[in-house]
Structure formats: C-alpha cells, structure tokens
Amino acid sequence: MGYNLDNKIKDTNKNNKNILPYGDTMNDGKVQLSFTLPVKNDEKGYQAALKTAQNMTLENVMIADSITLEEEFTMYIAYGTLTNGVNYDDIHVEEAVKHTLSKDEIEEKIKLHFDKPIVVVGASTGTDAHTVGIDAIMNMKGFAGHYGLERYKGIDTYNLGSQVENEDLVQFAKDKNADVLLISQTVTQKDVHIKNLIHLIELLEAEQMRKDFLVIIGGARITGSLAKELGFDAGFGPKKFAEDVATFFVEELINQKSIKNQ
Amino acid sequence: MSKLGLSQDKINQARQEAKIVADHTQAFIDKHTTDSVERTIVRLLGVDGINEFDIPIPNLVVDFLKHHHDPSIGIAQMLAYYIKKHNTTLDDIVAKITKETLPPQTIEPLSKEEVKKQLFPYYEKQMKAIVAQRATRDKFKQMHKLDRPMLYVIVATGNIYEDVTQAKAAAKQGADVIAVIRTTGQSLLDYVPYGPTTEGFGGTYATQENFRIMRKALDEVSIQEQRYIHLVNYASGLCMPEIAAMGAIERLDMMLNDSLYGILFRDINMERTFIDQYFSRVISAYASITINTGEDNYLTTSDALQEAHTVLASQFINEQFALRAKMPPHLMGLGHAFEIDPTIEDGFLYEYAQALMAREIFPEAPLKYMPPTKHMTGDIFKGYAQNTLFNIITSTTNQSIHLLGMLTEAVHTPFMSDRYLAIENAKMINQTMKHFGDEITFKKDGKIQSRAQNVLHDAHKLIKDINKDGLFDSLSKGVFAGIKRKKDGGKGRLGVYQKDPSYANPIIDDMLDSLKEVN
After folding, report:
1. A256 vs chain B: nearest CA distance in angstroms?
2. ipTM over 0.85
3. N or C terminus: which one in chain B shows less Cβ crowding within 10 Å?
4. CATH number of B1-30+293-469
5. Which residues 149-168 of A have a C-beta within 8 angstroms of B?
6. What pTM did the predictor assign?
C-alpha cells in the first residue's frame, strides 16, 4: 500500500484549462474520501470499495482503512487520483454583490435615497425548524462579529422565526408593506427545501405579488445560481453576513427606483 | 467540598428564589386544566384508536365535553356521570360518542369519590401496566451498570422502520441512548397521530405504535448486547402530557419535557404548556422516566459567554417545577450545552467551569450535556476537533447524558458513519481520560473558579428579578434566549380552562399519592 510512486506526474505547471485536485504536488489529482457500503468487511467488500471509487473515475485507488460499522455495513477511507480536470476559465458565477458595503456605508445610502425605512421580513420557512441562519442575518447580535439587520438605522426588521408557512409569510409581508423577503433554509432532508422554495415563488406569482418584493434566499446549501434558477432575486450561501445581504437589497431597491423615475 | 469554590449559601439562596417562582406558577397551574390534560385522562382510561377520518378517539371524547357541556368540570366527571347514569361501561359510552349516538344530558356533578369509584377499574389497568414497565426496566438495567456518561445519539429518518435499522446499528456500536427525533411541526399538532408511520421531515412522528416498534427492537439489541438501550422521545408541544402517558405505557426511558422550550422556540402559549407540563412530569415521575430540559437551546440564539447565567437560572427553576410534580432529583435531566465560540481565548476553561458548576450544584441530576451546534460550520474536520473538546469536558466533569456531537452538524442529518465516528471519539476520551477529573483541582480564584462563581452570582440575581415580575411577565420581557413571548399569545391558548369546584382528575391524585410514599 502507499502512493504509487511510479506514476510520475508529467506536467507540474498549473493549467487553468485543466484544474485538478491538489494533494502535495501540482496536478497530482489526489482525492481523499470516505463512504459506507452495506456489505461485510471482508475481501469481497474491499473489492466493492475499490470498484466504487473507480466508478467515480478515480485511478490508483487505495483503500486506506475499512471499518466495520455493523455486520452488514462497512466504512471505507479511500484515496485516488483524478485525471480529468475542469476548465476553470469557462466557469462563470452569479455574484449578487460585487463589493460589499460596510454597515455605515449602507446606512448612509439608505439615508440618502429613502425617506422611509426599508421593511425586511424574514423567516425560516416550511418544515425547517432552524433559526440559526435567519438569526445570524437579522438579529441584533448578528454572527461572528457582523451585526444583524435589526441594528441597522433605516431598516425595519421582522424575524418570524422557524416553521413559517409560505402563505403566512406572504400575508405578513403584505400587511407590513415589506420591501424585502428573506427566506432561510438551513438543514433539509431529501431536498425538501427546493420544493418549499418553488412553492413560495409559485404562490407569489399566483397572487401577482412577485414584483412587490425583493425575494432573497439564504442557507448552507444555497448558491446564487440556484437562487436565480428557482426565480429568486438573489441567494446567499455560507460565509455571507448582513452586510452582503443589505448591500444587495439597498442597491437593487435604488436601481428599481431610478428605473421607475425614468 | 466544591472544587470551584462555590458558596453553598449562594446556591441555597438561588434555590430558595427559584422555589418562590415555581410556587407562584404552581398556584395558577392547580386552578386550571387543558384540552391535552383531559385527553391524557381519556388515554389513561385505556381509550385509544381513531375514527374513519383519522381523528383520535381521545380528541372526539374531549370535543364532546366541550361542545355539549362546560369543559371546566373535566372529562372524568363527564364520563363517570354517563357511565353511572346509563349503568353501563366506559367502552359503551365512548363507542356512542364516536358514533354520535349519545344524547347529551345535563350533568349533575358526582362527588370526587364517586368519580373515582366509577373510573378506577379502567385506569387501574394502565397504572398497573406502567408499574410493570418500571419493573421491567429495573430488571434490564441489572444486566450492566454504567460507570461513565450515557452515550446518546439521534435517529431522524422519518421512517420508523429505517429508524430501527439505524438505531440498532448505533446501539451495537456502543450507544446507550437512542432518541427518535420527531418530524418537524409535530409539536404544533393538537392531536397525536396514530399507527406506524413512514413519512416525516427531519424526523419521525411520535405515535404509540412507533414507540412500541422501536422499544421492541431496542429490547432485542439490549439482550444481545447485555446492556440496556434507552429510548427517548419528546413529551413536548401541544400534546405534552398525552405523549408522556404513551411513553409511560410503552416504556420510554427519557422524555424531552420543558415548557420553557415550547414557549420560546415553538411559540406555545405559556399558560397552556405549564399546566400540561405539570401533569406530564407527574406521569413521568410515576413511570420513573427521566426528563430532559432544554436550557441548551438558549445558547443557540444567545451568546454562550454572555448568557451562561440564564441557563443556570432556568435549571434552578426547572428543578423546582419537577419537585412540585413529585419527581425525584435522579430523574431531572437538566440541560446545558457547549456553545462558546471556538475562537474565544480560554473558551475551553469557561466551558469547563460551566459544566463542573452544574455538576456541583445538581449532584444527583442526570445532567444532559449538548454538543456544539451553533459554531459548527460544515468543516467536518474542525467539527470533529470541537466535538473532542466537548467530549473531554463531558467525561471529566462526569456529565450523565452525553449527547454526541456529529461532525456533519449543519450539513445533513447524520450518516451511519457519522454516528460511528462520534461514538468512537467519546469512547476514546472516556477510556484514556477516565480518572482525569478526580486528579485535578483548580487554582484558587483562577479563571475557572472565578467564571463559575460569577455565573452563579448572575443566575441568582436573575432569578430574583424573575421573582419580582413573576415568571409569565419575565418571559414577556425576554429573559431567556432573548425571545419575548406574551402571556396571552402563542398556540393552544384556547384549550385552557379554569377548573370548576366539581372538577376531578382521580388519576393524578392517585399518582401523587403513590409518589408521596416513595419520596
């Protein structure tokens, strides 16, 4: 066992047309992973694990360890080499916000462009019981040293908490004359969050209210591209804070105002 | 002797203040009943099942009381009256209510003795079944005596049969406690679903049949492993006491049971849930079921460093509520958590202080210690390290119920392998650091001692403040978790009734009598 030293890497220059995982040498393509198979921890199971890794197009597969979880379940720790890289230059990303403004800058912009507070309604919707995400963006304290929207001058926030039905959220937003809806989906099972998000957009369109609000989603598994695909105005994944979200909606609301005024 | 230099006087004072908080609330509880309390009485009389529209029979029976009579007399009074008047059986009356063939009559209340006389033959059976389950548990526990924290993992597939597969695997890997997480939203249902279920989101419905299926599977593993595997569910939400009764009958071993949690995190009406909690704790005490309280959750919204004293204050209050339900301290699984931001200097020391402080202040309580969740990021490698730090404190401060942290917290519900890795980590710490806690003492007035003393001081002050305003008004000011709840707000408020002088609940009376003898 061990890395296959005979398999020399031909070209150790970084190539943006063919980016490969990096172990300890450029272009070595080394990957580590673990998975569990519902099989016995024996020679046959080992072969099944090798083939599983090969199915992922890994070469020079090494099974570093096989661990019995239960009689018929074995966890494997595997290493292997990828040779098929990605063309990095071809990748284009939906960035909702190019330059994130600071809290002070955002407050200044609001003061300059709006004569009444921006109303933001947020919730963790559907079956999701987690409020960590929405709290991190909205609550006074915020997260990791980034204050939440509640602390911003010129923004009125309503955090409805968790397990809020889409219908209730829309009704509340209508009653409060909201400008922005923030939807959080933290932990989900079997992609139930996608169904729930699609339902919200359908509901807004059915009520002919889609254009009344900026609708923004956030959560651990949310990306900007996913948000656009589902019909939202923007999506924010991990490591995004209140400033990122506020920069987006403040600038977008200003844009919309200037379009209306033309 | 306190390793943390905690003043016993200060602890006694805090306890005394908490006692007053609980006494005031209890005075309110004693005067009221709820829909769920009444349905629990129906269940403990042995009534179960659903009608053709899937409505549970206990709901139909209590609805009959509400539609045709004054609910303040209570369901026991109504059923006893009809049984006596028609000179028939409970089954006959329930069948007529279900088929809508019972003509409502004006009830002339019976004496409490007469109510008890009419209903005793029915509830005696369930009471005996609960006592028998208690004996079975005691016998199982003889197999293997634990001298370390109980390893507690969750299963949450949504399908009870899949849950069984996962639970058995976890038990064989070394888990002592299996919690079947409930489907999201069940806490807000004003009825308990019926039968085996295979569809749930983020968890599985709590039904009596699901309890039975999982209990049977875990009993099998217990015998194979020669080690008792404990089963946990949630006596919480709008059906709190009903689920406590189901759990008592089906031999669950622990129940999440904390009305403060429901008020704050599920927006359940505070009057409703304190009344419900009282009956559910009496039932759990009678069934020798350990409760788990939810203080750990405060730190998911509040900062663990700033708000540590709110956890301790709530533990003091929860202890007093449990005592009022005649629950002995060895069943009070008071909750707390390891949630300090891992970037804070000396964060580990403050966590150590908090955990050992809880251990010293509640020496007999089977403390429930929760792993990091708020600062878990999806970096599973860092997460595994955070869990190791948490495991060290759990093991060396002798916490009792050790919720195992999953390296994939914040990513997805646990894989089978995640649970395995968590158990292995805890086992390694328990083994390699077994007597570490006995070996160390702390510098006088050092960081750890000072931290514990300060938290106790602040907790005492907070309970005093709560006393000034009363618990209900304090909750409306946001004393816990920074969440404000109104006394007349929240779900389930309409199902609260002031008791009529003729109100009777012979089951709770009998349970309390029997608990008085024990304690």
Report:
1. 35
2. no
3. N
4. 3.20.20.440
5. 161-163
6. 0.84
